[in-house]
Amino acid sequence: MKKPNLSHCFSSYKMLPGWSNSHATSITDSLLTVLSALPHDTTRLKTLHQIILTSQDTPLALKYAQQLYKEAKLQNNKLYICDGAYFQTLYYYNNDGEQDSISKWVNLLKPIAQSIQYWKVYFNSQKLLINTYVYNNQYEYAFNEASKMLEKAQSIKRV
Predict the structure, then answer these.
(1) Cβ burial, residue 12 (10 Å; 0-12/13-18/19+)
(2) What's the confidence (pLDDT) of residue 38?
(3) How far is CA 68 from CA 50, 111, 137, in A?
(4) Helices in the chain by DSSP H: which ranges?
(5) CA-CA distance, 125 to 87, in Å (whole number)?
(6) CB within 8 A of 25, min separation 6: which ones?
(7) Which range has the top average pLDDT, 14-18, 77-81, 152-156?
(8) DSSP letter at 1?
(9) pTM score, whole prediction
């Protein structure tokens, strides 16, 4: 039987009545306490991932995404390298709209995501970049990126 994904549980709790940022802070603090004792292995990466999910509406989200990315690079774990880069992309998209930062992280994660066929992150990050171009009235760039995305989706039969 497949183990339940705790990150989905944390995200679901946020939608329940009575959920507040203090609950997320409490969970994040507990996970940070656990993190300090963990070895540098996949368990540490999973815990960092959960910390990001519970703190995604805070200014610390970027810090934890950077930690996840660096730890994943040290462990050469491509899945979590992509997640770390994707969370940073999301942070910049949601908070600053910094096109250069968004572009940097999308272009960094796409070849890695492609190499492990992590299509959800590949296409979602591409979508964020396209939206950024549209918001900045750079329609030609948006069209070109959308065309590349369609070609990739067709080549892997995802359309």
Answers:
(1) exposed
(2) 73
(3) 10, 18, 32
(4) 6-13, 21-37, 42-54, 61-75, 78-91, 99-115, 119-135, 139-155
(5) 10
(6) 55, 58
(7) 77-81
(8) -
(9) 0.79
Give the whole-angstrom CA distance, residue 147 versus residue 151: 6
CA 57, 58, 63, 64 torsion-angle sign: negative
Contact 65, 84 (CB under 8 A): yes
Q: Which residue has the tokens 């989905």?
A: 8
3-state secondary structure of 152: helix
Tell me the per-residue pLDDT of 63-118, one tens digit each, with 9 for 90 and over.
Answer: 999 999 999 999 999 999 999 999 999 999 998 778 999 999 999 999 999 999 99
**For 82, phi and psi rounded to 5 degrees?**
-65, -45
Task: Dig out the tokens for 74 from the structure.
Answer: 């040290």
Q: Please identify which residue in the block is written with the tokens 């272009």.
A: 107
Q: What pLDDT score was predicted for residue 86? A: 97
What amino acid occupies position 83? D
pLDDT of residue 158: 67
Angstrom distances, CA of residue 50 to CA of 12, 29, 31, 44, 119: 13, 11, 8, 10, 21
